[in-house]
Amino acid sequence: MRFVDSSIVDSIRVFAPATVANVACGFDIFGFAVDNPGDQITLTISEEPGVRITDILGDEGRLPREASRNTAGISIQTYLKHINRTDLGLDILLHKQMPLGSGLGSSAASAVAGVFAVNELLGRPLPVIKLLPFAMEGERIACGSAHADNVGPSLLGGFVVVRSYQPLDVIRIDTPANLYCTLVHPDIEVNTKDARFILKNEVSLKNTITQMGNVAGLIAGLMTPDYDLISRSLVDVIIEPVRSILIPEFNEAKQAALDNGALGCSISGSGPSMFALSRDAQTAEQIGAAMQQAFLSVGITSEAYVSEINKQGPKVL
Ligand code: HSE
Predict the structure, then answer these.
(1) 45, 202, 233, 275: which could join 214 in a potential S-S bond, CB 3.0 to 4.6 Å?
(2) Could you please report the per-residue DSSP string of 188-212?
(3) Residue 200 and residue 243 in contact, taking contact as beta carbons nearer than 8 Å
(4) What is the Å distance from ligand 1's center to 89 Cα?
């Protein structure tokens, strides 16, 4: 049996940020992190080998307590197997601080918090970028697909491009300093598995060309930076028209965002949350209020979050 180096701490608390996946035109390949909301995890070394979830706060008892069925638990287990430390005992206390099934990357934030915490707790045997495949395992059990457009930005911070899945090739893109994100989460739930199931498997050549133009334009716009180009490129002709039917008042909320100065607005991840980008905090707040009002006009309450693009990713608290 191996023991943990006594010079390192035996407990750690970590925050991992929520994320906006897809970012309109980049289905499964674009994502960025926000400062809030996010999940927290406390990981404590135990004498009893194995990974256990001692408690989950903020999920109203809905998430699996069995480590191998929980995104944080499975990510940690996969990581420990990889570094050959399945002898280790770890107790997980997960504090969910964002709604489930919201399109805010809730499962990804938990997975990232877990794998980042264990790597820090053990004195960082792996560089952060190498943690990505373990966090992706969390996504696989959460929604049946190991996509990286939530875990990538939650782990690395900033705006992330997943250029390829096989082999995994992830690139972090610079974003302008004054880019604000408004997130509005209407109080309804959309299951990611269902939101993936309704997508068509075939895409027309015309839509593919339009989407590729927007993908290229968005990256160029972010890197230049060129806000008008960002605005013109935040258009999704493939996924949004299908998924928006799952979000009541989608068109009205989007129009409210654009009327109030948004550079663009679309579905955050698989929804029902919607995101809008803008150039300053005040505009971002106004956009949030206008979108909330659109939902409220049909009796749907919502939460709004305003944040800059999170550049740091997970952090030890
Ligand atoms: N790219 C994924 C999807 C993100 O849209 O299904 C899920 O949050």
Answers:
(1) 233
(2) ----HHHHHHTS-S---HHHHHHHH
(3) no
(4) 32
Query: What is the mean pLDDT of each successive set of 10 residues along the chain, which is 317 residues long?
Result: 54 97 97 96 95 93 90 96 95 93 93 97 95 92 85 97 94 94 94 89 97 98 97 98 96 98 97 97 98 97 96 95
Structure tokens that stand for 165 in this block: 């899945």
Q: Residue 42: phi, psi to the nearest 5?
A: -115, 125
Q: How far apart are CA 274 and CA 201, in angstroms?
A: 24
Q: Which two tokens stand for residue 296?
A: 């409220």
Q: In terms of Cα–Cα distance, which of 167, 130, 178 is closest to 152? A: 130
Rounded to the nearest angstrom, the distance between the alpha carbon of 22 and the centre of ligand 1 is 7
Which one, of 115, 110, 31, 53, lies nearest residue 310 by Cα? Answer: 31
139 an active-site residue? yes
Q: pTM here?
A: 0.93
Pocket test for ligand 1, best of 19, 27, 242, 247 (most atoms within 8 A of CB): 27
The helix or strand, by DSSP H or E, that contains position 163, with its residue range, turns out to be strand 159-165
Q: Residues 63, 77: contact at Cβ < 8 Å?
A: no
Mutate to test the pocket of ligand 1, among 19, 104, 151, 196 (most ligand atoms within 8 A of CB): 196
- The CA distances from residue 192 to 22, 42, 85, 226, 246, in Å, are 13, 26, 32, 32, 11
What spacing in Å lies between the alpha carbon of 122 and ligand 1's midpoint?
31
CA distance 183 to 35: 11
DSSP 86-123: TT-EEEEEEE--S-TTSSS-HHHHHHHHHHHHHHHHTT
Distance of CA 84 to the CA centre of its chain: 28
